[in-house]
Design a protein that fits this description.
15 strands; Jelly Rolls; 197 residues; mainly beta; four-stranded antiparallel β-sheet
């Protein structure tokens, strides 16, 4: 896998080859987005601009809302990752329905795989994170193909603990397409998981 960016103990993973859904939009391409199957999207102009930004001490890559796809709906795919020994995987994501959790298989060199849990609160659950996340960027409107409606929406910062004694190869997700990942950053052993809230 190529295209990753190193920032100190963090490696920002390029997910663009694996994007299969569009959940961000600008006024000029609002009809191209379809986050949850009803034509809804998050106004990208209210989020950090495309490229690197920091959330709770962790750098992420914000997708570009002009791209035809900007997030990965979890549909049972296996995601190859930069090989290394990592403490944590940081996700920027959401559920487009109610809050959901699913299994993720962590694939290490030489096996066996380890099963863990990955979940996100609903993107309109801005008050209380229901899956143990940290808050991420927030928008104040829900966009559809026809109009914008005042509503607070949030991307969530979720953390998956890894085994730094083993070399990570990939993550394999459960088929739960209501869960969406917009960005992924790996943290090397010895980090503190970003800022604590």
């Amino acid at each position: 896998m190529g295209g990753e960016i190193r920032r100190g103990r963090f490696t920002l993973v390029d997910l663009t080859p694996y994007f299969n859904n569009k959940g961000l939009s600008l006024p000029q391409n609002r009809t191209q987005a379809n986050l949850g199957g009803m034509g809804s999207s998050i106004p990208a102009e209210e989020l950090p601009p495309p490229g690197e930004f920091v959330n709770c001490g962790v750098p992420f890559l914000m997708p570009d809302a002009l791209w035809p796809r900007d997030n990965m709906a979890l549909e049972g795919q296996e995601l190859p990752l930069p090989r290394g020994r990592w403490d944590r995987a940081h996700f920027l994501g959401l559920s487009d329905l109610s809050s959901f959790k699913g299994e993720v298989a962590v694939v290490y060199q030489g096996g066996p795989e380890e099963l863990s849990s990955l979940g996100f609160s609903a993107f309109n659950s801005v008050a209380v994170p229901l899956c143990g996340e940290k808050p991420g960027p927030t928008a104040r409107r829900l966009r559809t193909h026809l109009r914008d409606t005042p509503m607070e929406l949030r991307l969530w910062h979720q953390t998956l603990e890894l085994d730094p004694r083993r070399e990570l190869l990939a993550l394999r997700f459960e088929d739960i397409p209501v869960l969406h990942v917009f960005a992924l950053t790996l943290e090397e052993a010895g980090g503190d998981g970003g800022d604590r809230l």
